[in-house]
Amino acid sequence: MIVIPAVDIRQGNCVMLKQGKISDETIYSSDPVFMAKLWRAKGAERLHVVDLDGSFSGRQSNNEIIGNICLSVDAPVEVGGGIRNMKRIDEIFTLGASYAILGTVAIYDPDVVRKAIDKYGPDKIIVALDIYEDKVAIGGWKEITPISTSEMIEKLKAMGVSQIIYTDISKDGMLKGPNLKSLKSIATESKMKVIASGGVTTVEDVKQIAELEKDGVIGAIVGKALYTEDFKLEEAIRALRKD
After folding, report:
1. DSSP code per residue over 149-205
2. Of 74, 92, 182, 211, which residue is the least packed, with the fewest Cβ within 10 Å?
3. DSSP 3-state assignment of 126?
4. Is 109 a catalytic residue?
């Protein structure tokens, strides 16, 4: 299992939100490329980059930054945020991304997900499963759908999805630990490769998530705790290697 630092971009800055709310935004750097290079220098084996402008508006304005991140780090980069058609998926890979993260489009246009998997393969396409009180959230988490977690997992299986990022929105940015019970349940139910997201705060959190590797959990995304320095990336990597 690997630890994946998050680089969330809004209006050109590296930011972190609390439970996905712009009103609870903190700017941590005006140079997202520098932050990506920093996490790579500290040992990150993969980076999680999100275009929050794309997530909230569907319009991408951070292509240059994303492309520079992909060029500047010698590690795979997964990119998400407002990716809702094949044109944008193609663009993401042209920018140098190793993985494209799809979210809202999996609800509104599943054919795009199927086409992306047909074109790039299931290992290159990840779907974000963003959950609030067992319901799927979309549109930058602004809209909570009536679709349950289990329903959505079945839909994703039918699309040919093999990798998901599971985020418990209630935990995101709260620095109170992940929802391990739901993470285990989703991993065992879906039988997909699962990346944990939301609430990862301490090295102990990562070690507990790593215990679910046998269930299919392959990584843990860490965001706010890295930027507040509650979480030390090097310590987490050493702990995982030691185990």
Report:
1. HHHHHHHHHHHT--EEEEEEGGGTTS-S---HHHHHHHHHHH-SEEEEES---SHHH
2. 74
3. strand
4. no
Tokens (6 digits) for 238: 């050493």
CA atoms within 13 A on the CB side of 46: 17
Out of 8, 51, 168, 172, the active site residue is 8
Pairing of strands 143-148, 135-138: antiparallel
Distance CA 36, CA 227 (A): 12
Quote the CA–CA distance of 187 and 41 in Å, as a whole number: 30
pLDDT tens digit string along 175-211?
778 999 999 999 999 999 999 998 899 999 999 999 9
8 part of the active site: yes
First-to-last alpha carbon distance for the chain, in angstroms, is 11
Residue position matching structure tokens 């944990």: 196
Query: Which is catalytic among the residues 51, 53, 130, 168?
Result: 130
pLDDT for the residue 177? 82
